Amino acid sequence: MIRVVLVDDQPLIRSGFRALLDAEDDVAVVAEAGNGEEGLHAVRAHLPDVVLIDVQMPVVDGIEATRRIAADPALAGVHVVILTNYGLDEYVFHALRAGAAGFLVKDIEPEDFLHAVRVAARGDALLAPSITRRLIDRYVTAPPPPAAGADLKWLTNREREAVTLVAQGLSNEQIAERLVISPMTAKTHVNRAMVKLHARDRAQLVVFAYESGLVAPRDR
């Protein structure tokens, strides 16, 4: 059963998402909250698999709440998904840096919303290749700082290749096909890279790949 906490200051938004989730046999909404501070209390109390959290909220905003969740070792299994009205607004990349697993636009189709919750619960990033590219082109334009690539030395060549392909939005199955290896081996390379780079999830691997210079923002 996928356990979900909803955090949004608009009751109608929460009730709409809850209705969709509660209709599913494998999903349960365990708590709701109207601001980031209440959301943090709910997350710590219920230890959900997925937190759906709005960006702009009173008391504590979604980015700060995400940062606190990501920094708490007791919440290592919690996957945060940012809810936004505008898709690529100014907050999205900051949210990914803070530790979010991805983001959803609030007018998403119901079936896509449900699929996204399940993807997040598995620990996969909610970043389609086109969205990844637009995010990076918009937000990662400055050269990486001199020390940004220091952790790259800990990666094997295969792990570097896997991280590069994750940054392009490929799934483990697609990475396996590209590198001519098994999906399990691809998953192993990705997971080992996450451990070495102290990344919570694939979304943080994407951020690292671009900020370290492993992948250039304008590469095609």
Automatic annotation (TrEMBL):
InterPro entries: CheY-like_superfamily, NreC/VraR/RcsB-like_REC, Sig_transdc_resp-reg_C-effctor, Sig_transdc_resp-reg_receiver, Tscrpt_reg_LuxR_C, WalR-like. The keyword Disulfide bond does not apply. GO terms for biological process: phosphorelay signal transduction system; regulation of DNA-templated transcription. Gene3D superfamilies: 3.40.50.2300. Keywords: DNA-binding, Phosphoprotein, Transcription, Transcription regulation. Residues 3-121 form the Response regulatory domain. Residues 148-213 form the HTH luxR-type domain. GO terms for molecular function: DNA binding. It comes from the Bacteria. The modification 4-aspartylphosphate is found at D54. This is DNA-binding response regulator. It comes from Catellatospora coxensis.
